Amino acid sequence: MAYTTAQLLAMSQKQLDDLFSSSPAGDIPNGEANGTAIIAPDTKFSPEIASLINTFGWQGKNFDAAHGTLTNRLLAFGVNAIVAQVYKATSWFDNKECIVLDYSKTSLSAEHIRDEIRLIGPARYLGLVYWDKDRLIHFSLEFPGS
User: Fold this and answer.
1) Which residues does 102 contact at the CB level (< 8 Å), separation at least 6?
2) Of 101, 99, 93, which Cα lies nearest the Cα of 70?
């Protein structure tokens, strides 16, 4: 099934967790992805929070699969900043394979952050954000034109 951003924002925490757990790692993506932070899932606030974050904070990620890196697109101007290493490894969530976005060796400002993503449909990934080992939020990535 192909999931839309609206569908993901309307899912409960358990539904998002189940979708992440049941999805394959997929290939390490390449190119520009539009991102959506999923905060307060399955509430009337989730779409509004996601919109505010997209406008004033985080817009997405630019992947370079050949080099195993990414940069985040930030702020209203889409500044590329905060680099991560990208590789496949075991998920902290369920011990299955995932794609890890590891900031521990590439960023002083995000050194405690680890993201994990899995493929949930064509050109669409669902992710988890960790601060150290504490799980924070879900997010989605969509690769337009893929």
Assistant:
1) 84, 85, 86, 87, 114
2) 101
Q: Are 78 and 59 in contact (CB under 8 A)?
A: yes
Neighbour-count burial of 123, counting CB atoms closer than 10 A to its CB (0-12 exposed, 13-18 middle, 19+ buried): middle
Predicted confidence band at 146 (pLDDT cuts at 50, 70, 90)?
low
Q: Which two tokens stand for residue 84?
A: 């991560």
Which residue is it, tokens 């992440």? 20
| Per-residue confidence (pLDDT) for residue 139, from 0 to 100 | 97
| Strands 79-90 vs 124-131: parallel, antiparallel or unpaired | unpaired
Backbone CA torsion sign across 31, 137, 9, 89: positive
58-64 and 31-38 beta bridge pairing: antiparallel
CA triplet 58, 69, 110: central angle to 5 degrees?
A: 50
